[in-house]
Design brief:
Layout (H helix, E strand, L loop, with lengths): L2 H12 L3 H8 L4 H9 L5 H6 L3 H10 L2 H7 L5 H8 L4 H8 L4 H9 L3 H11 L6 H4 L4 E4 L5 H15 L4 E5 L5 E5 L1 H6 L6 H4 L5 E3 L4 H10 L4 E5 L5 E6 L4 H15 L12 H27 L2 H6 L3 H28 L8 H31 L2 H31 L4 H29 L1
Parallel strand pairs: 1-2, 4-5
Antiparallel strand pairs: 2-3, 5-6
Membrane topology: Multi-pass membrane protein
Family: Belongs to the SLC41A transporter family.
Organism: Candidatus Roizmanbacteria bacterium GW2011_GWC2_41_7
C-alpha cells in the first residue's frame, strides 16, 4: 500500500468516517488492507469495522498477532458471526482463540449446526498442537470404492461445502489406509478401486506439539499429514503447504526471544510498553555485567602498569561473544526442531569446544602478527592470541552447555541463554587475558 493512501486512511480513521475508509480500501486486496491495519496502532478497530463481512473474514486471518489481539475481542458477536460464516472451520477456530470463553460460546450458538460442530471439535485443541492446526476438509472412502463412488461423494461434498476435499481411505474400523491424490483419479482406468490408487498418509496425534510437527516436516518430504485421536481415528488433516505462516511465526518467536523481546510488543507501541517488556532482562544483564567488571577490577595493577592492555579487552570480549552466539544458535535450532539434543549433550558440547579451539587457533594466527606490528611487543601479541584461543573454547563449551541445561530445567533456552553465555565469555575472556598478562608480562 502506498504512503499517500495510508495517510488518507489514517486521516479518515481519526474522523471516524467509516464510509470514506471503505471507499478508499474498496479496490485494495486483503493482504494490503491487513498490512495497513497492522501499522495503524490505535486506529485499527475503526478501519477494520468499516469493511464488509466478506472482506473482514479474509483480512482477519492476514492480520498479525498484535492486531488480532487488539481487534477481535472488541468486536460485537454478530460481527464475528457474519465473517465466521464465510471462513473455513480451521480459520474460524483460529479466530475464536482471541475472544473470551463467554463470547466464544455465544458466537458458536449462532452458527449453522454443521459448521458449529466442526469448529467445536477444533477449538478443543490448543492452537500450538496438531489438533489446533488441522482442518476438516476431507471425505472418507472405503478400499473397495470405484471411481464412480468417489466422484459421487466428491460432488455431494463440493455442492455442500463449496470446496474440494482430500480423499482419505479407511478400513471398516476407521483406521487410515492412505489418501487418493487427484492426479491418480485422472490417470487411472475407470474400473480401478480405491485400494489400488492410494498413497501412504502419515499421521500424528492431535496432541502433538507444533515443534514436533515441524521437526517431522524437516525430516520428511510430505504433502499432507493426517491427524488422529487416541484410537487412530481420523480427525482432520494438515496440508504442508499451509504451514508456511506457522514456520515464519515460529522463526519470529525464536528471534524475538533470543533478543529478549516479547512477541506482544509492536514497533508502534508507546515507549511504556517497550520498557515493561524489556527492563527485567536488562537488569539481569546489568547484574552479569557487574560480574565481569569485578573480574577486571582484580587486575587494576596490571592495567595500571600496562595501559595498552585495556585497548585489546574489547577484542577478547567481542570474539568470545560472537563465537558463543554461533554455538548457541546451532544448539537452540536443534532443540527447536525437536532433535535429541539432551541425549547427545556430551558429544555436542565436546564438538563445540573443539570447534572453538581450532577457530581460536585460526583467529589467533591472524591476530598475533597484527598486534605485534601495532605494539612492537611480541609478548602482548602472544598473550592476546592465547587468551583468544581460551575464550573461544569457553564460548563453544558454554554456548552448547547453557541451552541444554536450561532445556533440562524446562526454561526456554531462546529466552535466557544469551545473557549467561555473554557473561561466561566476558568473565573467562578477561580473566584469561589479564591473568596471562600478569604472569607473563610483569
Amino acid at each position: 500500500m502506498n504512503k499517500s493512501l495510508l495517510r488518507q486512511v489514517q486521516k479518515e480513521a481519526r474522523n471516524h468516517d467509516t464510509k470514506a475508509i471503505a471507499s478508499l480500501l474498496e479496490k485494495e486486496d486483503f493482504h494490503s488492507v491487513a498490512e495497513c491495519i497492522n501499522v495503524l496502532g490505535s486506529d485499527r478497530l475503526v478501519v477494520f469495522t468499516s469493511l464488509n463481512g466478506e472482506k473482514q473474514a479474509k483480512i482477519a486471518l492476514a492480520l498479525n498477532y498484535r492486531s488480532k489481539r487488539s481487534i477481535l475481542p472488541q468486536l460485537p458477536d454478530k460481527t464475528i458471526v457474519s465473517f465466521l460464516q464465510l471462513s473455513d472451520e480451521d480459520d474460524a477456530a483460529d479466530i475464536l482463540q482471541f475472544v473470551s470463553d463467554e463470547h466464544r460460546n455465544a458466537i458458536l450458538e449462532k452458527l449453522q449446526d454443521e459448521k458449529r460442530k466442526r469448529i467445536e471439535t477444533l477449538v478443543k485443541y490448543h492452537p500450538e498442537t496438531a489438533g489446533g492446526l488441522m482442518d476438516m476438509n476431507f471425505i472418507v472412502v472405503k478400499p473397495d470404492f470405484n471411481l464412480q463412488d468417489i466422484a459421487e461423494k466428491i460432488d455431494r461434498y463440493t455442492i455442500r461445502e463449496k470446496k474440494t476435499p482430500l480423499i482419505v481411505a479407511t478400513r471398516d474400523d476407521g483406521t487410515i489406509i492412505g489418501y487418493v491424490p487427484y492426479r491418480n483419479l485422472i490417470l487411472t482406468s475407470p474400473d480401478s478401486l480405491v485400494k489400488d490408487i492410494t498413497r501412504s498418509l502419515p499421521f500424528i496425534s492431535a496432541q502433538t506439539k507444533k515443534r514436533k510437527l515441524l521437526h517431522l516436516l524437516s525430516r520428511r518430504k510430505l504433502e499432507v499429514i493426517g491427524v488422529t485421536d487416541t484410537k487412530d481415528q481420523l480427525l482432520g488433516i494438515i496440508h504442508v503447504s499451509d504451514l508456511a505462516q506457522l514456520i515464519e511465526s515460529e522463526t519470529t518467536d525464536n528471534l524475538l526471544q533470543f533478543a529478549g523481546v516479547s512477541r506482544e510488543e509492536d514497533m508502534l507501541d508507546p515507549a511504556s510498553v517497550a520498557v515493561k517488556n524489556r527492563y527485567m532482562w536488562l537488569i539481569v544483564n546489568l547484574g552479569t555485567a557487574f560480574l565481569a567488571a569485578f573480574v577486571v577490577s582484580r587486575f587494576e595493577n596490571t592495567i595500571a602498569q600496562m595501559a595498552i592492555l585495556a585497548s585489546f579487552m574489547p577484542i577478547v570480549a567481542g570474539m568470545g561473544g560472537n563465537a558463543g552466539t554461533q554455538s548457541l544458535a546451532v544448539v537452540i535450532r536443534g532443540i527447536a526442531l525437536g532433535e535429541r539434543a539432551w541425549t547427545n549433550g556430551r558429544r555436542i558440547i565436546l564438538k563445540e569446544a573443539v570447534a572453538g579451539f581450532f577457530n581460536g587457533l585460526i583467529t589467533a594466527a591472524v591476530t598475533i602478527p597484527i598486534v605485534w606490528w601495532f605494539t612492537k611487543d611480541l609478548g602482548i601479541a602472544l598473550v592476546l592470541g592465547s587468551a583468544m584461543i581460551i575464550n573461544l573454547v569457553v564460548a563453544g563449551f558454554f554456548g552448547a552447555m547453557i541451552p541444554l541445561a536450561l532445556k533440562f530445567f524446562k526454561i526456554d533456552p531462546a529466552v535466557a541463554s544469551t545473557v549467561f553465555v555473554t557473561t561466561a565469555t566476558d568473565v573467562f575472556g578477561f580473566f584469561a587475558f589479564l591473568g596471562l598478562a600478569t604472569v607473563v608480562l610483569l
